[in-house]
Amino acid sequence: MHYKIKLIQLFTGVLTLSATFMGIADDRTTCKEIEKQCIYKTLEKVSKWQLERLNTDTYVFEGYEKDAHMSPANEGSHPQGWVYAALFVGMAQMAELASEKGDESYYKTLFDIAKNGRYLFGPRIYNADDYAIGQLYLDLYDKYKKEEIITPLKVVFDITLLSPPTVNLTFEEITQKSNVTDKQFVEHFGQRKFPYRPCKNRWCWADALFMGPPVWTHLAKVTGDNRYLDFSNKEFWATVDLLWDKEDHLFFRDTRFFDKREPNGEKVIWARGVGWVAAGLARILEHFPKDHPQRAGYEDIFSKMMTRLAGAQQSDGLWRPSVLAPDRQPFKETSGTALMAFAFASGINQGILDKDTFMPVVLNAWNALNDAVQPDGKLGWVQQIGHSPDKVSKDDTQMYAVGAFLLTGTELYKLAEK
């Protein structure tokens, strides 16, 4: 099925671009002009707000609201878990940009964080959420060329290669009781509880395509060991075969959503879920060999998905929590929007997406994301940790959205002409 990008989006995007180049004033708290210095100023502001909440004794981010799912007992709050990792992915790109300007402070902070954690991972070596932080370690390795940075990563992945998981990709949560004590088995690591979902030993949920394959692909590139690439390629296509909707050119979050429908009859496509896939594909393609026989397949689904997503962008530049049913939950949502905006910008920079066609989509999204930044640099309108479309408020924030915002801004910086 062929989808056309809404003309109103293209028109408003062109107007925005024209206005910024004409120097029309903007009284908002951030700098929205598509000009390098302006973009960098915004990235600094958002980064500063986040880094001010880093406890440099514990290397844990603090000061979140009680309902932000960042308690010490929550699996998402593990310092080497996916919430932190998603921030660090964007922060590493900010560090590279700052370094080009002579500012090494971001790299120093990230290196201190990684070194303090001994370059280790979350406790579940088969779960993509817990090795997503490998993206930070690989970016630091590219910078410093210290072998110890990626040694634990290679150990974990070599174990996986020697004993690859073979579980079914159907998503379900398992509860078991002891025959002796009659108590339920729960996985504990420190104070944190980790629910048991067997399929997460493989990439059975959309988010995993951001957390996992970019690490495997990048490691293959820096080591020259194609075993990592071969494993990632095999598992990636198993996930695509499972979750890719060939009709709508989008991804279901996991198997629980195959038969679910919105009140308007559309499928339930979660903005952040499909955003993880879009951003994950962009990250994969950064390091995937140009001459690999299956690269064209990656680019094909990436292009189809981004075209479909462009048509679902709302007139204010954002995507709603439910992509195909924006009116059911008409909340602004910045985490999914930022992930998609990054993917669009990266796709343009990599020469996969047509700039004339998709640049207005990026500009609309960037303007909307800037509007969600509060005067102190806090990024609002972030849906909290979850797995499906849900409510959002202007004061909701999370680290993964900040990471996605930084990814978007650093890619847009490359696209700016002055």
TrEMBL record:
Keywords: Hydrolase. It comes from the Bacteria. InterPro entries: 6-hairpin_glycosidase_sf (IPR008928), 6hp_glycosidase-like_sf (IPR012341), Glyco_hydro_88 (IPR010905), PolySaccharide_Degr_Enz (IPR052043). The keyword Hydrolase applies. Transmembrane segments: none annotated. SUPFAM superfamilies: Six-hairpin glycosidases. The keyword Amino-acid biosynthesis does not apply. GO terms for molecular function: hydrolase activity. Gene3D superfamilies: 1.50.10.10. GO terms for biological process: carbohydrate metabolic process. This is Glycosyl hydrolase family 88. The lineage of its organism: Bacteria, Pseudomonadati, Pseudomonadota, Gammaproteobacteria, Alteromonadales.
